């Protein structure tokens, strides 16, 4: 059975471009409830750890630099079938391929600076939420 919790970040580029409010409003309009929200700046080491699964990819160093370049908004979201529903909602990884009206289409500026993160499994949603928030029990 799929869970009702996912984890998202508004990435540094979208925060720097002034899109926090618009993106959070869109997430809420999409039917996702905010269970926890935090503004946070990842260190280089924390960004490396968060994206460790991509450490062998050619874009890893650039991704880590970009994700630690300024503050992010971290949030835990609740909805039915949250992980898949949210990934569908935000659009494809590359904003150029993301569906019209999606957050990544509207606010992403490149495949790397694609406005938001969305967990890819229930297990990773838990791990990622616990990375930023002290205890998932509160959700
Ligand atoms: P998603 O965020 O859609 O789950 P991935 O897990 O494949 O995508 O990649 C993680 C993040 O790495 C992406 O959101 C994006 O910021 C970055 N990324 C992915 N592919 C590329 C690429 N080819 N070039 C640069 N950055 C990339
Ligand atoms: Mg991913």
**Stretches where pLDDT falls below 50 for ≥5 residues?**
none
Q: How would you spell out the order of helices and strands?
A: EHHEHHEHHEH
The assigned CATH architecture is: 2-Layer Sandwich
CATH level-1 class: Alpha Beta
DSSP strand count: 4
- Determine the fraction of residues in helical runs and give it as a percent range: 25-40%
Looking at the structure, what is the overall shape? globular
Bound molecules: adenosine-5'-diphosphate, magnesium ion
Strand content range: 15-25%
Q: State the end-to-end distance.
A: 18 Å
Mean pLDDT: 95
Q: What number of domains?
A: 1
Structural class: alpha+beta
Task: Kindly provide the radius of gyration, computed on alpha-carbon positions and rounded to a whole number of angstroms.
Answer: 14 Å
Q: What does the secondary structure layout of this molecule look like, with pairings?
A:
Layout: E1 5-10, H1 12-16, H2 20-29, E2 33-40, H3 44-50, H4 60-67, E3 72-78, H5 82-90, H6 103-107, E4 116-118, H7 122-132
Helix pairs in contact: 3-4
Bound molecules: adenosine-5'-diphosphate and magnesium ion.
Describe this structure in words.
By secondary structure, the chain is α+β, with helices and mostly antiparallel strands. It has a single domain (5-134), classed as Alpha-Beta Plaits. The protein has seven helices and four strands, in the order βααβααβααβα. A four-stranded antiparallel sheet has the order 2-3-1-4, sandwiched between helices. α3 (44-50) crosses α4. The protein is globular and about 35 Å long. The two termini are 18 Å apart. The mean pLDDT is 95. Bound molecules: adenosine-5'-diphosphate (ADP) and magnesium ion. Adenosine-5'-diphosphate binds next to loops. The site of adenosine-5'-diphosphate has 9 residues, from loops.
């Amino acid at each position: 059975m799929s869970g009702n919790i996912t984890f998202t970040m508004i990435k540094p580029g979208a925060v720097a471009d002034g899109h926090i409010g618009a993106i959070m409003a869109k997430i809420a309009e999409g039917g996702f409830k905010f269970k926890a929200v935090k503004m946070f700046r990842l260190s280089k080491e924390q960004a490396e750890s968060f994206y460790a699964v991509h450490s062998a990819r050619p874009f890893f160093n650039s991704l880590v630099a970009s994700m630690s370049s300024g503050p992010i908004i971290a949030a835990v979201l609740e909805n039915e079938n949250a992980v898949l529903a949210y990934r569908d909602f935000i659009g494809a990884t590359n904003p150029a391929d993301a569906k019209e009206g999606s957050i990544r289409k509207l606010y992403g500026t490149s495949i790397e600076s694609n406005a938001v993160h969305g967990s890819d499994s229930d297990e990773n949603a838990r791990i990622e939420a616990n990375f930023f928030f002290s205890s998932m029990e509160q959700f």
